[in-house]
Design goal:
Elements: H1 3-17, H2 41-51, H3 53-59, H4 65-71, H5 76-104, H6 107-124, H7 130-158, H8 161-192, H9 196-216, H10 230-243, H11 245-275, H12 280-304, H13 310-334, H14 338-364, H15 372-395, H16 403-424, H17 428-436
Length: 445
């Protein structure tokens, strides 16, 4: 099937599903699609918390990485693999949970995934070696991925048009609060407990969201709107998504930006603590400040949607990350010092507040509810896997120089810009029309 036919088919399907002549409301779901620009606070809080499972799993753990390395007698590179394993689990888990939620509905896979995440967190507390911890972190990420991918699919079930873009921006804002709180809290935990206390906290948080999801949401995907056909249908959905130029363009631009962020997250604790002499507590504070900038920009993006197109907001964010990433490399090569490095980190991180929600909204706007889980999964896999592979390779450069980290971030920042230019600009008019002029009000198909 050609890309044009695939896109036209999606448009026709969406028009049929969203036709004003549709009568009645499906009784098989307890939530109805929001067609105004209003987004419910309850949806934002619960879904935002679920999408934050990734940052919570990684960022709360960051300040304790050097301590884990010392306690378990592992090298820096091996200790980083415990972080990479979690990120890879988050990536692979989305490929599993997304299609399953398209076939079985959102509720059951979500609750099972959160429960397994809580159990894996408890087992990490008693991990005797870095090998066991790595395996458990992979399982933890695999299970936690259900929260990320299914939360976005639920948002796609409930909202469309400007409301969808605004909802995702708000989800990202809640999501981005996690990197502010998590490393600061993780750093303070080290004052009163070992690194194992981080996993006690993660287990408690997952139980809270398990209860919130169980009682806060009904099923959002009715039985007659679910994907059928088993594995072959899943592969067909992925193939069609990969053949869609607009979808893959937005997905890759978001993924390269995320990769720059993952390299920063995984390598900066060693660089800032070992080269620049920061304490874990000061590192946590600075990391939180950067994440605050990201959350603020996500909120700005949410408020601008409707007045400024998501395509333009995405373009502003991509230009900013390319400039900041290049400035970081130039600053480190020229020996500008800690202040220049921190400034580049802040601008680079804040730019993700414009890139992530708008690229995600534009990508998901090109899908329908039957494949929203698969589309969300593919987005997640690309976002997590590229950076997860790059981060430990950067760590092989050692802790005596920041050049490998800066060079890798610069490459990803520029790749984000190139992807936007090559893939996304030809779709600008259609993308703006889809998001700025949502479909007519209707009920869920």
């Amino acid at each position: 099937m050609s890309t044009r036919n695939f896109s036209s088919k999606h448009q026709s399907n969406q028009q049929a599903m969203l036709s004003p002549s549709a009568e009645g409301t499906k009784q098989t779901v307890t939530e109805s699609k929001e067609t105004s620009t209003r987004v419910r606070a309850r949806h934002v809080l619960i879904l935002g918390g679920l999408t934050a499972f990734g940052p919570l799993s990684t960022d709360m753990y960051l300040p304790s990485l050097p301590t884990v390395s010392h306690d378990l007698g592992a090298t820096m590179s091996l200790t980083q693999i415990t972080l990479t394993a979690c990120i890879l689990g988050l990536s692979l888990g989305q490929m599993i949970a997304g299609p399953i939620s398209d076939a079985l509905g959102r509720r059951r896979p979500l609750l099972i995934g959160i429960a397994i995440f809580a159990l894996a967190s408890l087992l990490c507390i008693v991990a005797p070696s870095v090998t066991v911890l790595t395996i458990l972190r992979f399982v933890q990420g695999l299970a936690g991925a259900s929260g990320i991918v299914i939360a976005l699919a639920i948002a796609r079930d409930l909202y469309s048009g400007i409301a969808l873009a605004r909802c995702i921006s708000l989800l990202m804002m809640v999501n981005f609060l996690a990197p502010i709180i998590a490393p600061i809290f993780g750093g303070q935990l080290l004052r009163f407990s070992s690194w194992r206390g981080v996993f006690v906290t993660l287990a408690l948080i997952s139980v809270v969201f398990l209860l919130a999801s169980a009682f806060g949401f009904g099923e959002t995907l009715p039985a007659d709107s679910r994907q059928s056909g088993g594995i072959s249908a899943t592969f067909r959905a992925f193939r069609n998504l990969l053949a869609d130029r607009r979808f893959i363009g937005y997905a890759l631009s978001c993924s390269f930006a995320f990769a720059a962020g993952i390299v920063y997250i995984s390598v900066s604790p060693f660089i800032l603590e070992n080269i620049y002499g920061l304490s874990p507590q000061l590192f946590s504070l600075l990391f939180g400040i950067n994440a605050l900038g990201l959350a603020i920009m996500a909120q700005v993006s949410a408020r601008l949607v409707g007045r400024v197109s998501p395509q333009k907001l995405l373009t502003w964010g991509v230009a900013t990350i390319a400039i900041a990433a290049t400035a970081l490399l130039m600053g480190i090569l020229s020996g500008i010092g800690l202040a220049g490095v921190l400034a580049s980190f802040f601008v680079m991180t804040a730019s993700l507040g414009f890139i992530a929600p708008n690229a995600t909204a534009l990508a998901l706007a090109n899908t329908n509810t039957r494949t929203a889980g698969s589309a969300s999964a593919l987005l997640g896999v690309l976002q997590f896997s590229i950076g997860a592979v790059a981060a430990p390779l950067v760590g092989l450069g050692g802790t005596t120089t920041a050049v490998p980290m800066a060079a890798t971030i610069a490459v990803f920042g520029l790749a984000t810009l190139v992807t936007l230019i090559v893939f996304c600009r030809p779709a600008q008019a259609l993308a703006e029309a889809r998001v700025e002029h949502p479909p007519h009000p209707t009920q869920l198909p």
